[in-house]
Amino acid sequence: MSLEEPSTTILVSCKQTRFHIENPVYQELDIESLNITVTSGGKSASKAKGKARAEGLEILSNANLKLKAGVHYALIGRNGTGKSTILKAVAEKLIPGIPIQTRISILQQTATDGSADGEKAGFSVPAVSSQTLFSVLEAVIDRATSRNEIQQEIDVLSNAIDKSDTPLSPLRAFRQVHHNRLKREVFELDKDARLRSGTRGMAARKALTAFEKKVTESTEKLSQTDEEIDEDTVKEETHAATDLLAELQAQLEPARLANIEVKARSILTGLGFSKAQFGKPVTTLSGGWRMRTNLASALLQPTDILILDEPTNFLDLLGIIWLQKYLLRLRDDGPNPPTLVLVSHDRDFINTVCQELIILRDHDLTYFRGDLPSYDASIRDKKLYLGRMKDAQEKQKAHIQQTIAQNIKQGKATGDDNKLRQAKSRQKKIDDRMGMEKSATGGRFKLNRDLAGYHLTARAEIEIPQDEKGVSIMLPAAPDLRFPGPLISVENVTFKYPTLKKSSAPTPVVLQDVNLTIHMGDRVGVVGLNGCGKSTLIKLLTDTTKPTKGTVTRHPRLRMGYYAQHAVEDLQALGRAEPELTALVLLIREVGTELDEGEVRGLLGSLGLPGRTASDVPLTKLSGGQLVRLALARLLWKSPQLLILDEITTHLDFHTVTALTDAFGSWNGAILVVSHDRYMIRRVVEGEKDDEDSDGGNEREDGDESRRRTVFLLKSGILKVLERGVSGFEDSLEKRVEKLSLA
């Protein structure tokens, strides 16, 4: 099966069962030998199939996709490996074996135009509604109930029945509504027929052919003249139109819609919408609020499989914690809870919500029951175990090779055939019986049982898992200031926007008596809900806004690097404006004569954009994580002493987040982090270690006792120290979410 879009074509194939499945569980998937390839949209599907492996981007090769009913999964993998493409293939039912009746609801990432990369294939979030004048509440309810579509059918039928000019008006309306339904149904049957093969494919194609005859008959009925329709047909179809109208009106009964509206309001409130925003037209919302609207729609719809691609993007911590609790309740409520598959960079969110991990790596899917810390620990234990096994076998091999050489030498010198046979037997042991000493189940390895295929005679090689943390990121050291003093000092700063001339009402105070001092090496975190003034504080620190009262003083030799929240989107816009622009060309253009090409390449390589990735791949083809590294390179070549990071984890996979936090942990400059990512704040600001690095898990980084580490809460314009750090803020929000749930 293939799906063609302006930027990409997705090619999908898999093994299909020949057997009929009675009463399938729609919350489950069991797909074997799954292959997914993304090719250029310019190629036709027929031409692309034969050359897919050579010309396309291979996402999966002979993988198994297995989802158990009601289980919550996290799909994890590095940026650019194709997580979003897999989710789209499932949601669009492009994969043979997904029943056509399965209800699948999906929240997709925002569009990234022009990318052929599997992770950024340009798939936009579905429009909330085709009705541009819909309010937020109306749009969410419409997506869950198809209310607008049903209402259109009601209007067509009621106008024909109540205000009919001729006796044939109800018949004409009924036939038009019926014909429109047939066209929608034939589209689904056509997709089902193209997805299936063998006996089931033949049956699906026969069903499609039979249904196409119905569509043809319906088209002929629409074109009938008044004289061709007899009186009995008029009576019969007029009665059918009346019955259908009553059925549709029952679906939109006020009592039924009232329950759905109550649930919609609850979801929107949990995601941060105020009551005043419920009535706003969707078209007036920013991209972030539209994403929240789409998330609310996905949560409200009845579904068998719920797919969420980065649902925490654009949510503040209150919204994230509410969503955690909602998804946990969803898993426990009812006899047939939906299966959940999500992609997220937020480690805490994954650990709280998900029961199993699906690991996408090397074009394959593997499964792990447990959370991310357990998975990381299992990988470390496996590497340690296999490393010791391999070392022991290498020593054993060396010893056997030495005895073989001695046996051959002695056998040839004395003509002893036994020595030569012994050497040959020992060589066979090295060739055929060295390798894995344990089977996949942990038992002792048996050649005739643990290797598939009678022709195989050797054990599998011992393969030590490669490091899963992604790229290694190294930050260039910040230069000295030459003379002491704070990098930046904010003293008794108050800020409010100036009053408009036409308005006599005073503008509210955004920041009130803020004090903040940052020295070299400090780690500062700022947390708070959306709209609390974090962006205004950043503008004051970066000198893009002046305080209404108070002073902001900067060290005269301070160089500051500011990572803006929309840095990735800005780079994507640059890429669309100049389709051939690469990371290397962009950075060389910006550094001018300050650095030569070798130094620019070295900087990009240290941040995970080496060689041809930097010089040959256009910005439009880089993944979100790669664009984050490029944005950092644009700051770091200036050798800043202070980095201000505003939501830097939004486009990263969690492996890269870990690599980045490690790099920030050892950097000698000062860092101010504004983020809703609890893991980022704990690692960078509070200095916590992973279990991998410390037995305690909460110890500070070695040699960092002299660093000043402070987490601030910005609330109602007031900046105050959180004595218990981000955990204290999290606990307070947990209580607020409980109140929201009870309201």
UniProtKB/TrEMBL annotation:
InterPro entries: AAA+_ATPase (IPR003593), ABC_transporter-like_ATP-bd (IPR003439), ABC_transporter-like_CS (IPR017871), ABCF (IPR050611), P-loop_NTPase (IPR027417). Residues 31-387, 488-718 form the ABC transporter domain. Residues 697-706 have a biased composition (Basic and acidic residues). It comes from the Eukaryota. The keyword Secreted does not apply. It holds the Pfam family ABC_tran. One of its GO terms (molecular function) is ATP binding. SMART domains: AAA (SM00382). Keywords: ATP-binding, Nucleotide-binding, Repeat. Residues 687-706 are annotated as: Disordered. PANTHER family: ATP-BINDING TRANSPORT PROTEIN-RELATED, ATPASE, PUTATIVE (AFU_ORTHOLOGUE AFUA_1G16440)-RELATED. This is ABC transporter-like protein. It comes from Mollisia scopiformis (Conifer needle endophyte fungus).
